[in-house]
Structure formats: C-alpha cells, structure tokens
Amino acid sequence: MGVREVLRVLRKRWWLVLGMVAIGLGAAAAVNARTTPTYATSVTFFITTPNSGINEVYQGGLFSQQRVKSYTSLLTSDRLTAAMARRADTGLTPDQIRVRIDASPTPETVLLNATVTDESVDRSRQLAGLLATEFKALVETLETPPDQKLSSVKVEVVAGPTTDPTPVSPRPVRNLLLAGLFGLLAGAGLSILREVLDTTVKTTESLTASAGAPVLAVVPVDSGLKDAPHRLVTTMAHSPRAEALRQLRTNLQFVDVDHPIRTVVVTSAVAGEGKSSTACNLATLFAEAGRRVLLVDADLRRPKVAEYLGIEGAVGLTTILAGQAAIEDVAQPWGSGMWVLPSGFQPPNPSELLGSEHMADLLEHFRSQYDIVIVDCPPLLPVTDGAIVAARADGALLVTRARKTTQAEVAAAAAALGSVDARLLGCVFNMVKPADGGPYSYYGYGSVSPSSGRHASGRADTDASVRELLDAAADRPEAPVSAGR
Fold first, then answer.
1. Of 152-161, 192-201, 244-253, 297-306, which range is least confident?
2. What is the domain-level CATH number for residue 57?
3. Mean pLDDT (whole number) for 9-13
4. Taken in order 128, 131, 136, 139, is the CA torsion positive or negative?
5. Which stretches does UniProt call biased (Basic and acidic residues) (predicted)?
6. Same structural domain, 79 and 176
7. In terms of domains, do 144 and 241 share one?
8. Are residues 428 and 290 both part of a single domain?
9. pLDDT of residue 481
10. Phi (first) and psi of residue 350, to 5 degrees
C-alpha cells in the first residue's frame, strides 16, 4: 500500500482515527485525575579517599569510582533502610522506604545521586535527610579498618537535599501528548488493517480483475436520493449520476461496433446492488436518445420495475409466457419511445419459465420489434434465473455496489455467466462514494443553477438543442403513468 493509498484510507476513516485519539486523551485524563501526586527530593554524594601524593591521588580516584558502583546498591540495602525506619517516625517499614529510594552513579565520576519520592513533600524531604546521614555513617563504618580510627573512604554531601515543588508524577501534559500520539498511531493502524482485511470491491482495478471484464461506468452515490432512492436520472439531468449512466449508454453502443448490442441483461452478484434502478435509468436514457426501447422485468421472484416506474405490474412477462396474453396487450408505453413489460404474477417455477423455448422465441421477437431490449434479471449467486436469460441475450451487465460486494462474489458471478457461455459485456461500479475518488469528482460536475443555466462548477451548456432536451426530461413527473399513456 503506497503513501497515496494510505492517505486516502486515513481521509476516508478519519472518524476512526479521531475516535482513537479521543479515547487515548480520555484515558490519559482519567489517569491524571486518579493518580496521587508524588514529589522528589534529591541528594548528591561525593566519594573520596585520603591520599598524600600524585600516584595516590590517581589510585584513590580509581578506587572511589569502583566503590561508587557498589554504593549504589548500598543505598537500598536492608541495613540502611532498617536504620532509617528506626530513626524516622514516618510509619513506614524498611521495604516501603526501599521502594521510595532510587540511586544512580554519574558515569566516569565519583558522584552518586539518590532520589527519594513520596506522596508527601515533608516526608520526602525528611527521608532524604535521613538517607544522607545514615548512608554517610554506614559507609564510614564499613570502610574503617579494625586497626584504624579513620575511614579509608570519605562521603560528603555536595548537593541537597533539594525538593522539587512540582510533582514528578503524574505529568499531565506529557501524558496527554503521549496518549494523543498513541491514539493517532492506533487509529491509523486500525484504519489500514481494516482496509487490508476488507475484501469488498473498492476500486475499478479490483472490479476488473475480479470480473475479468472492463468497467463501463462508475456511478457515484447521490446524496439527493436518500428520500427518493428510486428517482430516475431524467428528473436530475445534470447530476453526476446521470452523466455516469449516459457514459454507460455510450459505452454499450461501442462494445461491439460490428455486431450492435440489441438485448442486454442487467444483473448483479447479490441483492441490493442497484441492478433494477440501473436498468430503469438505462432504458430511459436510451429512449431519450431517440431509440425504441423495451424494458423487461424478468426478476420473477422480487420484481421492482413496476414499483420504480409507478405502473401496474399485475400482468406482464409471466402472463405472456403462460399464453394468456400477447405482448401488445401487456407492454405499457412510458414516455416517448419506451415500453415497459412488467414481470406479472409470481409463478411457482420462475427458472423453468425463463429457460423455456417460449422465452427464447419471445426474446427474438423483442429483438425484431425494438432497437434495444433491456432485461432486469435476478442476482446470479442466489438463483440461476439471470444466467439462463443472459445465455440467450447479446450480453450481460454486472452491477456491483462499491464496498458491499466482495471480490469473491464478483468472481463467482462472472463464473456463473461463463458456465452458460453468456457474454459479460462489462461491469457497472455503482454507488461509489466521493471519498473513493472517481471521474466525476475530478471533473467537478454539479447541480444546475436555475438562474444562470450553468453547472455548479461554472461550465455552461453551449449546445442549445441538448439543453432543451435535458430540460424537457428534467420536467418529466416522477410518476409517469399518466404522461406515458
């Protein structure tokens, strides 16, 4: 994963990074509030040995440096802490005093530093004073030979005891900074890990690789469709979604120039990917371009076309397949140049009906009567209906919803089409969010300003005839039954 991809992931999952930072800061604030402040008192000892000549001075210095290393452990010895416990009225045991003492030598010197930390400033200062007195007496006792009266080592206090008025623990600012940094790193790590473990289709490259077919259109998600998710693009002619579906219409016309596509199956791997709305919109856009279009709802299990277009769906394809009506009796005109054939009643054997010779003959009849036939079929993975119809059509479009459909599902859907020798014309990458990037976010397509007739990006329509056509489509009512009949 490159730097640009990492930045894209962090921008997309900023809420996770921000949440981890907030958790880290909250934890640090709780620790700061619950931790009792502790204060430190420091004292520095100077270790020397008596000498009378230059050689003795040098040897005494080396001797003192070696002794300092041993005295570090002596500062926390049982003998010293027991002596301090006897002399001090602190209520502390030798073990409790020991954990409050920290000793460290200054490298390459004869200086020894000791620090006493305690929750009480006064007791910290008292223990440091006792430590200086008792340590000096203990060293002189241990270093005085039996036959001499003077110690061979001299201990002097050269600094302290000095108490820092600022608590050494907790350190609120440092804790908050470290917690914020840790939360930032943790949030970034979780975001990247989640992205790596996410096997859904997120890019056109991964969709092409999984399906083994090109991506014919990248359809962005439209926030304006939250209240009307099935609203047709002809009512919002200048939206990025409408531009993407027009690109799909154009690409379909040039998929095979020598053998123009006449019957197209629109399907998906699983449910909820937007295949029915794509089929409806694509049909209306072909009709807008002056083509004679027939939209067939072959999803006999969960039909949606009649509901999306606001027409009667009680009679339709199954009525014809059952021999109860002719195509002219049940195909309903919708707008100019478009007819809709709903699914009709729900049969108990949809796969058998769609795989019958009658269905094959019906598709051939549709092909001869209309410029283009768009067939909405069920998802490929749950049932075989879509693959059966796709095998008898000129090709199929695979609608894939961004960040919902997994790469394995796309590959399985493509394999289902291949198993019946159906032609996969390409994929429609649907509901792509702006955070994932896309051609329409790059070009800056936006809504149209009613006062100026220009796009939100400032680009004006220069072709008057095209503008009039789009404006006429935009004025078409959302429930087009009355307009189409």
1. 152-161
2. 3.30.70.1130
3. 81
4. negative
5. 458-478
6. no
7. no
8. yes
9. 34
10. -60, -40
Q: Looking at the structure, tell me whether residues 292 and 184 fall in a common domain.
A: no
Q: Residue 156: what are its φ and ψ, rounded to 5°?
A: -130, 145
Pair (150, 215) in one structural domain: no
Per-residue model confidence as pLDDT tens digits over 126-140: 888 888 888 777 877
Highest mean pLDDT among 36-45, 51-60, 296-305: 296-305
Mean pLDDT of the chain: 81
Q: Quickly tell me which residue has 């040039």 as its tokens.
A: 254
Are residues 180 and 306 part of one domain?
no
Q: Positive or negative, the Cα torsion across 209, 210, 213, 219?
A: negative
Same domain? For 220 and 255 the reply is yes
Which residue in 123, 119, 115 sits closest to 41, CA to CA?
Answer: 115
The total domain count for the chain is 3
Any idea which residue has 């709305």 for tokens? 277
Residue 408: per-residue pLDDT: 95
My answer on whether 345 and 308 are in the same domain is yes
Rounded to whole angstroms, how far apart are CA atoms 231 and 479? 10
Query: Which pLDDT band holds residue 477 (cuts at 50, 70, 90)?
Result: very low
Containing structural domain, residue 258:
201-484
Contacts with 479 (C-beta within 8 Å, 6 or more apart), sequence order: 310
